[in-house]
Write a structure and sequence with these properties.
187 residues, minor pseudopilin epsh fold, 28% helix, disordered C terminus, four-stranded antiparallel beta sheet, single chain
């Protein structure tokens, strides 16, 4: 028996490699829109969580300092631009630098990737405030709802604040359903 000295070639041919690259490119193109939606959903979840943390922080500061504490948008009533948490030492429900005690400032989300439209209950408006007992000031109980320009109004997340001062994150139905309240929002 004689053996052939020629070794069997191993590896991919150029044609096989080009077919695999073309398939990967097609699959990546199909997956890109879903990946963008996944990122948008996650950013909505993060913004809602950040606002809930700020609301609970304000409530805790109000109780700790025995004074009213406020969560207020940085720009008029536009919650999508960010907000600040402060102890309102002069009880005017507006942040005054040098007078009020600033607890934290949360800046706007990455608007280059995601733009937010914020729908809010009219009772929330320009602030969410807590008295020294941790209860919501006046009729400030309500909700702040975030939606995404990428997702449209099909997926909305928000923070619901009860009159007792408890906050929670809630998924809201599509805006087309006409419902701006999640199950059990009125406590």
């Amino acid at each position: 028996m004689t053996r052939s000295s020629a070794a069997k070639p191993q590896g991919f041919t150029l044609v096989e490699l080009m077919v695999v690259i073309a398939l990967v490119a097609i699959i990546a193109t199909l997956a890109a829109p879903d990946f963008q939606r996944l990122i948008a959903r996650q950013k909505l979840n993060v913004v809602a969580s950040d606002l809930l943390v700020s609301v609970m922080q304000a409530r805790g500061e109000a109780i700790k300092n025995n004074r009213q504490a406020i969560v207020q948008p940085l720009v008029s009533s536009d919650w999508s631009r960010g907000w600040r948490v402060f102890v309102d030492l002069n009880n005017d429900k507006a942040y005054t630098e040098g007078t009020d005690m600033l607890i934290t400032t949360v800046r706007e989300a990455d608007s280059s990737v995601l733009q937010f439209q914020v729908a809010r209950n009219t009772t929330v408006g320009n602030l969410i405030g807590f008295d020294a007992s941790g209860f919501v000031l006046g009729a400030d109980a309500g909700q702040v709802i975030f939606s995404s320009s990428v997702l449209g109004t099909s997926y909305r997340k928000g923070v619901v604040i009860s009159r007792t001062g408890r906050g929670r994150i809630c998924a809201f139905p599509a805006a087309s359903s006409g419902a701006d309240q999640c199950a059990g929002a009125s406590e």
